[in-house]
Design a protein that fits this description.
Helix content is 52%, strand content 6%. The chain has 267 residues and is mostly helical. The strands form two sheets. The protein has a two-stranded antiparallel ribbon with strand order 1-2. A two-stranded antiparallel ribbon has the order 3-4. A hairpin with a 6-residue loop joins strand 1 and strand 2.
């Protein structure tokens, strides 16, 4: 009897021992692995932006517009004699500092309408509903077209007799020549120029230019050397021939040009 009791006690003891061991293993496997979580958090904190990747910030859309297009405006001044300050101020005013629909959808920064334009077009409500405006592949072509628009029209001839960099005179004469009907147009341009000190850009161009801008003589118009920003259209407008004639004279199959390329512009 005592042996039977001893065997039962031994079985119970062994069973309790085994159960105790199993339960301890279960607790160990369920215990959260804290070190893994900590390592993961540390890795996230160590992620840093690489040096030199910070983007340029601007106080306003107008300041960004000036920074983006000032070089183009200065180039146009050097080539055509239009103050860079005036070009930029008009661009800011006409395009809403590059945020207007025409500038966003059509790269048209000066609100120039079609008037026989054979390129891309966009329709926009202006003086009348859904008027036709010119559409450009790049904003720089809008700036060049603006220069040609003023240079090629006789009613703006008086502007080019003003002293180079006379932005106040340009602002007043633009309205008198019929560029804008708004009586406050000159004051708006002058205000923009003086607020953002755009006249400094004019002085930079004047300082780098050896001579005042002059139209080429008849002899010089026989050939044209392609400059940065030139297009077949702008060259054709300057010399009074069509794009098709330019292509035939120079054996061109498309409109691609290279800086320094010499084109025959008179037969």
């Amino acid at each position: 009897m005592n042996r039977k009791i001893s065997r039962i006690a031994l079985v119970i003891f062994l069973g309790c021992f085994l159960f105790s061991c199993r339960s301890k293993k279960t607790i160990v496997t369920k215990k959260p692995n804290k070190p893994t979580v900590v390592i993961g958090d540390d890795r996230k904190e160590e992620i840093k932006k690489p040096s030199g990747t910070s983007t340029k910030t601007y106080a306003s859309a107008t300041e960004k517009y000036i920074d983006v297009y000032k070089d183009i405006a200065q180039q146009e001044m050097d080539l055509y004699g239009i103050p860079a300050s005036i070009t930029l101020a008009q661009g800011i005013l006409e395009s809403g500092s590059g945020k207007g629909r025409l500038s966003v959808k059509a790269n048209n920064h000066f609100g120039i309408k079609c008037h026989g334009w054979k390129g891309g077009k966009i329709y926009h409500d202006d003086d009348r509903a859904q008027e036709c405006f010119r559409k450009y592949k790049d904003a720089k072509y809008s700036f060049r077209d603006h220069s040609l628009f003023l240079k090629d029209r006789k009613r703006y001839a008086k502007l080019f007799k003003l002293k180079k960099g006379d932005y106040k005179g340009w602002a007043r004469e633009l309205r008198l020549a019929g560029y804008a009907t708004d009586k406050k147009y000159p004051q708006k341009l002058i205000s923009i120029i003086e607020r953002y000190e755009l006249y400094k850009l004019d002085k930079e161009v004047k300082g780098n230019s050896k001579v005042e801008f002059e139209m080429p003589t008849a002899e010089e118009q026989i050939k044209h050397t392609v400059l940065k920003g030139d297009t077949l259209y702008s060259i054709s407008r300057r010399y009074g021939i069509t794009v098709e004639e330019l292509q035939k004279l120079n054996g061109l199959n498309d409109t691609a040009l290279n800086i320094g390329q010499v084109l025959v512009v008179k037969p």
